[in-house]
C-alpha cells in the first residue's frame, strides 16, 4: 500500500487538489469526472397522464419498455412531465425512439433531450464571496444548525410547531381528496363532504437528548480542511459538502460522540484519505453506530469506498480496524460488534453494498414493551427506543385488537410492531423486503416464545393478498392492517390490494414523513375506481408522536376504517376481487 501513502495524511492529496482546482469554476465539470453522473444522458418525458404513481412510471420504463434508466425524477405528484437519466448516449437515443409517440393511459407521450443541471456546489462557490459577516469572514453552518433546527427552541414550543405541521398535512389531504373525487365524478360533488376525524394532541418523547440508538456519521473534511467524523452540514445539491463535529449535537448519546472522535484518530493516522464528493475519490466514507440495550451493545460499521484496493490491502485494513478497537485507542469503547462495509458509487450491474462481519457479535439487542429484539446491521429499528414504546402503544390502542383479530404487519422490519401486538391477537402476519430483517423477525418471535406470528420476505406488492389468503379468516373475524412503510410510502399496487380486500375493515397507517404519503391517504379514501374497486376507507383518528426531539420531524399514526354503506351501494362498488 506504499503508493497510497501521503506525507501529511491530514492534507488533501496533490492529485485531488488539482482536480478540485480544475473543476472549481466549471459548472458542468462533474460530467467529465470519472464518477458516473445521472445527468450526462438525460431526457424529458412530456404529456404524462393526470393520475399515475412513481412505481407505475418506473414499471413502464424499466420493465414494460425495458429501458436501462439509472434515475427517474418526478418534480411533484402527478406532474405532466418527468426526467429520465440513462447510462449512455446510445441508450438515451433508444429511449427517445421508444417513448416518443408511445400511448400510455390514453396519453401520447413525447420524449426530448434535456440539459444537465449546473453543479450546485460550483454555482454556490461563485456567489459565496458575498456570504461574509461584518469582519469579512464567511459564516459556516454548524452541524447543530443543519441536523437540529429546533435545538434551541423550548420543547413545548417544538411540540406546537410539529402539531401545526400535522394540521397543514391534514389540510392538504382534504384538498387532494376533494380534487380526486371531483375528477372522478363531477355530478356528485354537490353531495361531497370533507372527511371528519379526531385529532389527538401530540405525544411527547420521554427523552429529549441523547435518544438516538443509530447514527450515520459522514467522514470528510470541515471548512478548514481538517478531517472530521460527524455530520455533513448540507447537501451537494445545496452547495455544501463540509463535515463538522457532532460534539454540540443533542441527539446522539455521549458514547456515540466519543466513538466518532476516537475513530477519527484511526482515520487521521491511516495512509488512506477520506472520501471526497467532488472527486469521488478517497476511502473512508461513513461510520454507522448502533447503540442499544442501555448502551451495553455497541455496533460499529465502517463504510469504505474501496476503489482499487487489492484483497490483501482490504484484509490488512480490516485487521487494523479490529486491532484498533480491541488493543489500541478504541479499546475503551468496548465495541461488541464490528463490520466492514464497501460503499462504491453505484454503476450498472452492481448488486449493492458488500458488508462483512469482522469482530464480536453479529447482532445487537434492545427491548420494547418487555420483548427482546435482535437487530442486524441493515435492519430497520425505531431510532428512539423509549419513544418507540409510546408509538407502539398508540398503534395498539388505535387498532383495538381482540383475540379474534388477525394483524397484517406490512413493512414489518424486524417484527417489532407485530410482535408487540401478538399477545392481544389471534395471529400476526408480517412481510418485509429485506431478507435479514425477516430472519431477525423470526428469531425475535422464537426468542420471545411467540407462536402466533408468521413472517415472509418479499415485496408488499406481491405478498399482501397472498398473506391475507394464508390468514384464512373465519366469518365474524377480521383483519387489521398495520402499515409502517419507508419514507415515500407504499406503491399504488400495495394500496390497491389493501383497499380491495373486503376482509380488512380497519387500517392503521404509521408514517415518519406525512407529506410524502398524502397520495396513499387519498387512494385509501377516494371514491371507487377501476383500480381501487373496494369500498373506500375513512380517516377516523390522527395522532402525532414525537420520535425526533430538536428536529422538524415527528411520526404520524392514522386510523382508517372502512366506510359504512348499504348493500345496494356496496354492490355498486364492484367488490369482485378474488382473495
From TrEMBL:
InterPro entries: MeTrfase_TrmA_AS, Nucleotide-bd_a/b_plait_sf, RBD_domain_sf, SAM-dependent_MTases_sf, TRM2_met, U5_MeTrfase_fam. GO terms for biological process: methylation; RNA processing. Gene3D superfamilies: 2.40.50.1070, 3.30.70.330, Vaccinia Virus protein VP39 (3.40.50.150). It comes from the Eukaryota. Its EC number is 2.1.1.35. It holds the Pfam family tRNA_U5-meth_tr. It is an enzyme of class 2 (transferase). S-adenosyl-L-methionine binds at residues 382, 432, 484. The active site is at residue 512. This is tRNA (uracil(54)-C(5))-methyltransferase. It comes from Chironomus riparius.
Amino acid at each position: 500500500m506504499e503508493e497510497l501513502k501521503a506525507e501529511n495524511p491530514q492534507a488533501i492529496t496533490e492529485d485531488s487538489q488539482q482536480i478540485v482546482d480544475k473543476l472549481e469554476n466549471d459548472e458542468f465539470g462533474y460530467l467529465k469526472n470519472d464518477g458516473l453522473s445521472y445527468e450526462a444522458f438525460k431526457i424529458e418525458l412530456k404529456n404524462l397522464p393526470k393520475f399515475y404513481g412513481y412505481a407505475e412510471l418506473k414499471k413502464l420504463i424499466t420493465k414494460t419498455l425495458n429501458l436501462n434508466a439509472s434515475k427517474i425524477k418526478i418534480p411533484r405528484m402527478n406532474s405532466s412531465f418527468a426526467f429520465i437519466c440513462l447510462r449512455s448516449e446510445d441508450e438515451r437515443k433508444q429511449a427517445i425512439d421508444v417513448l416518443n409517440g408511445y400511448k400510455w393511459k390514453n396519453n401520447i407521450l413525447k420524449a426530448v433531450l434535456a440539459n444537465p443541471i449546473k453543479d450546485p456546489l460550483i454555482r454556490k462557490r461563485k456567489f459565496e464571496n458575498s456570504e461574509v459577516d461584518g469582519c469579512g469572514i464567511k459564516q459556516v453552518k454548524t452541524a447543530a444548525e443543519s441536523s437540529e433546527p429546533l435545538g434551541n427552541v423550548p420543547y413545548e414550543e417544538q411540540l406546537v410547531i410539529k402539531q401545526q405541521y400535522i394540521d397543514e398535512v391534514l389540510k392538504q389531504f382534504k384538498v387532494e381528496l376533494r380534487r380526486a373525487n371531483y375528477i372522478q365524478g363531477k355530478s356528485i360533488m354537490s353531495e361531497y363532504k370533507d372527511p371528519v376525524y379526531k385529532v389527538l394532541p401530540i405525544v411527547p418523547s420521554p427523552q429529549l437528548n441523547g435518544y438516538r440508538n443509530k447514527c450515520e456519521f459522514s467522514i470528510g473534511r470541515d471548512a478548514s480542511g481538517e478531517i472530521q467524523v460527524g455530520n455533513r452540514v448540507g447537501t451537494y445539491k445545496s452547495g455544501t459538502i463540509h463535515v463538522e463535529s457532532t460534539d454540540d449535537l443533542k441527539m446522539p448519546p455521549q458514547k456515540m460522540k466519543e466513538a466518532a472522535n476516537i475513530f477519527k484518530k484511526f482515520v487521521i493516522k491511516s495512509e488512506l484519505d477520506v472520501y471526497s464528493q467532488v472527486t469521488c475519490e478517497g476511502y473512508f466514507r461513513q461510520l454507522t453506530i448502533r447503540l442499544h440495550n442501555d448502551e451495553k451493545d455497541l455496533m460499529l460499521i465502517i463504510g469504505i469506498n474501496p476503489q482499487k484496493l487489492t484483497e490483501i490491502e482490504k484484509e490488512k485494513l480490516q485487521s487494523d480496524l479490529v486491532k484498533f478497537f480491541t488493543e489500541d485507542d478504541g479499546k475503551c469503547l468496548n465495541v461488541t460488534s464490528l463490520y466492514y462495509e464497501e460503499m462504491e458509487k453505484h454503476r450498472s450491474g452492481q448488486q449493492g453494498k458488500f458488508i462483512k462481519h469482522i469482530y464480536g457479535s453479529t447482532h445487537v439487542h434492545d427491548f420494547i414493551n418487555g420483548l427482546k429484539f435482535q437487530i442486524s446491521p441493515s435492519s430497520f429499528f425505531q431510532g428512539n427506543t423509549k419513544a418507540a414504546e409510546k408509538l407502539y402503544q398508540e398503534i395498539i390502542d388505535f387498532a383495538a385488537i381482540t383475540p379474534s383479530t388477525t394483524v397484517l404487519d406490512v413493512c414489518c422490519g424486524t417484527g417489532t410492531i407485530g410482535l408487540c401486538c401478538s399477545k392481544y391477537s389471534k395471529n400476526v402476519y408480517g412481510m418485509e423486503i429485506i431478507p435479514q430483517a425477516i430472519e431477525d423477525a423470526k428469531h425475535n418471535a422464537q426468542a420471545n416464545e411467540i407462536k402466533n406470528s408468521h413472517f415472509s420476505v418479499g415485496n408488499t406488492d406481491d405478498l399482501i393478498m397472498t398473506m391475507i389468503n394464508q390468514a384464512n379468516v373465519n366469518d365474524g373475524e377480521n383483519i387489521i392492517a398495520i402499515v409502517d412503510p419507508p419514507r415515500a410510502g407504499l406503491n399504488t399496487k400495495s394500496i390497491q390490494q389493501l383497499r380491495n380486500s373486503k376482509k380488512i375493515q380497519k387500517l392503521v397507517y404509521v408514517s415518519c414523513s406525512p407529506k410524502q404519503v398524502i397520495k396513499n391517504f387519498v387512494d385509501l379514501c377516494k371514491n371507487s375506481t377501476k383500480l381501487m374497486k373496494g369500498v373506500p376507507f375513512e380517516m377516523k383518528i390522527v395522532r402525532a408522536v414525537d420520535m425526533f426531539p430538536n428536529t422538524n420531524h415527528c411520526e404520524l399514526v392514522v386510523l382508517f376504517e372502512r366506510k359504512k354503506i348499504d348493500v345496494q351501494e356496496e354492490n355498486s362498488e364492484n367488490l369482485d376481487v378474488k382473495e
